[in-house]
Amino acid sequence: MSKKSKDEDSTQTLRKAMIEDLSIRVSESKRDTPVTTRLDDEIIEMLDILVKLGIFKSRSEAIASILEMTLFDHRDKFKQLSTEITKLEKIQDRAKDIALDVLQRR
Prior knowledge:
The chain is mostly helical and 106 residues long. It folds into 2 domains: 73 residues, no CATH class; 33 residues. 77% of the residues lie in helices and 0% in strands. The chain contains 4 helices and no strands.
């Protein structure tokens, strides 16, 4: 088998694996909330390539899947962030209570 043929086989195998993995993730996702965003032309071109290759059905599906993969890979960090935000909100609430107390005593 020629090197070119081996490379093509490897590419096809990789592509099939990616499509299968992404298809599973996409089919398991529940997407109800639309989000509007502006992207530069280079990103749109990349998304269009993924759609033309059949990896995704649409730009929207590509964006959602890529975001999901990226964010879910860092899920533990987002849980930590959520915990820290809750702590900050409690501090802000206490600070507001103190400020209101000061203002009411005028």
